[in-house]
Amino acid sequence: MESWGDVERREFLSWLARGTFGAAVAGGALGAGRPAAAAPDITVLVRATVIDGTGQPPARNSTVVLSGDRILAVGQHPEVPRLSGVRVVDLDGKYVIPGLWDLHAHSTFFESTIALLHVVHGVTGIRDMWGVPETHDLRRRVEAGEVLGPRLVIASTVIDGPGSPWPDVDLVRTEAEARAAVHRAKDGGADFVKVYSFLSPECYAAIADESGKVGLPFAGHVPARVPVQVAVERGQHTHEHLYNLFTSTSHNAEELYAQLTAMPDDPTDPNWWGLQLHRIEREAVATHDPARAEALFTRMVERGIWQSPTLFVERQMSLSPETILGDPVVQDRLRYIPISLRAIWLARMRVRPPRTPQEVAELLRFGDARLRLLNAMHEAGVGIVAGTDAGYTYVFPGFALHDELALLVRAGLSPMAALQSATRDAAQCLGRAHETGTIAVGKQADLVVLEADPLADITNTRRIHAVITRGRYLGPQDRTRMLAEIEAAASEPDEAPTATPDSCCHP
Ligand SMILES: [Zn+2]
Ligand SMILES: [Zn+2]
User: Fold this and answer.
1) What is the CATH number of the domain that holds 226?
2) Ligand 2 centroid to 387 CA: how many Å?
3) Which ligand is nearest the CA of 130, by number?
4) Predicted local distance difference test score (pLDDT) of residue 427
5) Considering its fold, how many domains does the chain have in total?
6) Is the pLDDT of residue 3 over 70?
7) 336: nearest Cα among 400, 396, 403
8) Which domain holds residue 30?
């Protein structure tokens, strides 16, 4: 390996000092004061337009200096000296944004396909909503630098109640079982406890209480029989899919929850409450009470509760199965999905009843009401984070995050706010704002280089020139090669681990 002596180090530090980087640079990061060391792994991005994620306007002709997995400096500079170990990349005309986070993803354990699809599309961090041992194993190997993959925040197994549509959940019927499930989550190394729609209010309260005792956040679906106001007071950290919001903000809310509670509790009963909840939620749009919504949103802000609306998957699942299966975009993207997962997706789609055009139109109208509600939440100051349900049926990892950003803008967020939902705000939601989410000195070296301005048109986030993950620069040729490798791996029959939960309960 080339050695970096005091001369090179001094020249580089002197160059850094001549720039207007606006922040002191620690010479220690470059091994100053030590004898000649191996050449550092430094990448200098020059002439870029930087959109740093803080909300500041784009900074033209900027330089970003990366040292290993850290951002060493950001600002303006004179010409870079030619030194061993220093790679200079000219990004004239390009836009640099922070690496994107998808805060609602599944099935990341397919490491040579799903995990890489995120990275190649600029999604350098994800929150996996159903942790299994394979997910933790992948995280260990990604952190050790053995394999390429997104940074991972990992949920527990889904904890749910009787009637759950998923066979592999941690099913709880009593408060004692609910508390025990929280301990299993803690012992399994989960970053947070994942709650789901079919939990009883009593079990949910026990999970909230026990999570606090073991020091884990809890997040996921607000259970169908728990008003959102109650979930906010209990401190459920993120609420997924905008579920239950119309029921909870109806001026008939108390009556609607009383109806749900009065319905049979037996999932085999044709009048089981679980079969009625989507209808009740849709009908509640007609009795929406904006003042009640405003009060709820204010309380969400005060309590630091986040919403992950997953607009794209809800919209897609409003369509008839044959529409989804016949979509040429869906067909084209399938080649990147492991064949075992393709089979699961297809089987799920085959058991969905077809929808009449009237039913689809009704669901899409409901989707529009959800967009309006989301915009009201955003304007009230509630934190919105981008999540996709990637890995769930026909939601393509990596691709979907860009679809989600476009829908957030369609809902009324500015392109900057949409971008922040997957960068600065995602980091804040995860408690990781000190290390990710914006382009700032000392933060992790995760960046996306775009061909065009995402603030002029949010769909420009799809026009990726390069991805930088943990300081590793993946340029156009690297990305093309990676996509070919993902496609090849997807057709291998052995990609499926033993457990393949990937789930949700969209209408
Ligand atoms: Zn999900
Ligand atoms: Zn879900």
Assistant:
1) 3.20.20.140
2) 10
3) 1
4) 98
5) 2
6) no
7) 396
8) 3-93
